[in-house]
Structures are given as C-alpha cells and as structure tokens.
Amino acid sequence: MYKRQLRRSAKRASLYIVITGILIIIILPIFFLFSFSFMSDYETYSEWPKPLVPSLKAEFKLDKEVDGYHLFIFNRSENDFMPFGPLSFHDDAGELEKLQEFVKRQANCTLPVSKIREYMHKADSGTPVTFNLRKKLLANYVLFFQVVNGAPKAVLNSLMVALATIVISLSIGGMAGFAFARYFFKGKNLLKLSVLFVRMFPAVSIAIPMVIILGRMGLYDQPLGLSLVYSVGQISMSIWITASVFMSIPVSLEEAAMVFGTSRVGAFWHITLPLALPGLAACAMYSFIGSWNEVISAVVLTQFNPTFPVVVYKALVGSQGQINLITAGSVAQALPAIIFTLIIRKYIIQMWSGVKV
User: Fold this and answer.
1) Terminal Cα-to-Cα distance of the chain (whole angstroms)
2) Which of 133, 222, 230, 300 lies deepest, with the highest CB count within 10 Å?
3) Distances (CA, A) of 45 to 104, 132, 275, 306, 324
4) For residues 51 and 307, what is the distance between their CA atoms, to the nearest angstrom?
5) pLDDT in tens, 190-224
6) How many CB atoms lie within 10 A of CB 273?
7) Domain count of the chain?
8) Same domain for 13 and 63?
9) What is the phi/psi pair of residue 63, to 5°?
10) DSSP structural state of residue 38
11) Torsion of Cα atoms, 69 then 74 then 77 then 83, to 10°
12) Is the pLDDT assigned to residue 33 strictly greater than 60?
C-alpha cells in the first residue's frame, strides 16, 4: 500500500515537473522579449550579465575634474558608477545639448540643459553630485515607429487585411460549414476533407503564382488582394470549426421554430446563429492571428504597401544589433492579436465548455 502511494506521488511529481518545464520554456522567451523591449541602449549593450528586468530609473553622478566635468551612470552588473557620455564637457551650450541628446538616446531619460547647469554648479564645490532620472519605458516603442519607414501605415494595412480576412473566411466558411452540418449529399465527406488540401502546401508556393493572378486583377500590393490569399487557407479551417459547431446544435430547435411560422432563414438567424457564436468567435480568432502574423506571403505580395509583420521583419534583417528596438517592434506586433483574443475570450471559453442549449 505504501509503495503504491509512493509510485502515485512520484508520477504526480513527475507530471508537475514536466508541466513546469514546458511553461518555463514557453514563458521565458516571452518574458525576455518584453523585458528587452523596455531596456535602454545602455542596459542592453553595456551591462553584462544582462539584468532580468529593466530599471525604472537611471542613477547618474556628475563630477568636476581638471579637464572639465565628467558624467557617470550606475551599472547594475558592476554595482558601481561607470563613465557615461563624452570624456569631458564644459559649460558650453553646444556641448550640453549634445550631452542632453546622448542621455536621451542611450538611457531613455530626459535631462534638460538647465538641470545640467544646476548640477554643474553644485559639483563646483568639489563634491560629486548624484541624481536620479525616471526612464521613459515606452521610448523604444515610440522610436521604432519614428525611425522605421512606413511603420504606422503598415499597422493600418495589417488591420484592413486582418478584418477583411475575417469577413471573407467567416462568410464563406460559415455557410459551407452549415451546409456540411445540415445537408446530406454524395461525396460530402470527401469534399469536406479536400478543403484541407490547400493547407498542405507551403505559403510561398501559393504566393508566387498569386503574384501573376493578383497583378492581372489589379490587386497586387493591395490589402484586399492579400486578404483574398490569406482567406484561401483560413476558409478551410473555418469550415471544419463551424461544421462541428453546427452539428452540435440540435436540428429540432430549428424545426420547432419553423413549426411556429419562422422561415428556415429566420430559424438560422434567431436560433442557430446565436448558439454558434462561440465557434464563429474561434474562427475569427484563428483568422485574425493567422493573417496578422503572416510574413512570407506578405513579403512576396507587397511592395509599397507592406503589412506590419513585413516591416518588423525588414527592420530585423536590416538592423545593426538594435535588439531593444526590434523587440519593441515585435511586442507591438503581438499586442493587437492579444487584445483581439481578450475581447472575444468569453466566446472562446463558451466553445470549450460546449454549446449551451
């Protein structure tokens, strides 16, 4: 009896260890992605080993020596003040403006020239002056949209593509799913299986011939053309999800509504559709995430009107070690999908718990 309980406890402990390991593998990269996106250039490249979390403020020390004034910043890895900025500077408007810009760029802090002069006067007594500046945590996000060409417009393009993909995939996939769930015809199962064939091909193999097709239609490098390509893969998933949801809704509910004078369309609109909302919300979530994060097809099918993932991808390829800036762009890319999922989470939870009749 004791050995049996011991084996059960060992199995349970092993299961918890495996689950914990999986969660760590999943969460740790996401944690570092968010952490790096809030770090300043100094924290990213001058502190090693890297701190796990970004600091909320930066601590500086200003000292006066024979050759001029010197600015130091506190390094968390070294646990000491390290030289920061120019080797020395003087009470000159041009030098102080350059120092102000350097502090803003490297430490994500704002240090007005008037404050610099105030600290310089205090340091004239021969005692170093220490002071803290609050960091601008969103500085990397703002800078990303300022320096990356076409980033704001790319966000609008991605939103248009994602919303159009949802409308197209839900309209066609939802109607097809209802037909598969309610009607019986020859070759039904084979046809239902065949809609998944398109998902077996790599995205780039479909995107290349679509360049010619969309070019002839006048939809190349257009959000609508890109959404049509995305819808090809999303429709098949929508068909399977909605077909399963509609099959779980009893036909007797529609028949009962029609007995009381409601048409088939009215029964679908007032009875079946409200019960199928969780499944439709799941389709919308898959369509939004799939179209929002897609890169390969967007690189091939866009030129002057790229989507936001393409902009982030090109910034990553063309970056020169600006890790914190690229991670800020990556987090900005993930936020809309996260927000959209949170908005429809109620319907997703209802789908997991089954259709409530």
Assistant:
1) 46
2) 230
3) 16, 21, 54, 31, 9
4) 33
5) 888 888 887 788 777 888 888 889 989 999 999 99
6) 15
7) 3
8) no
9) -130, 150
10) T
11) -10
12) yes
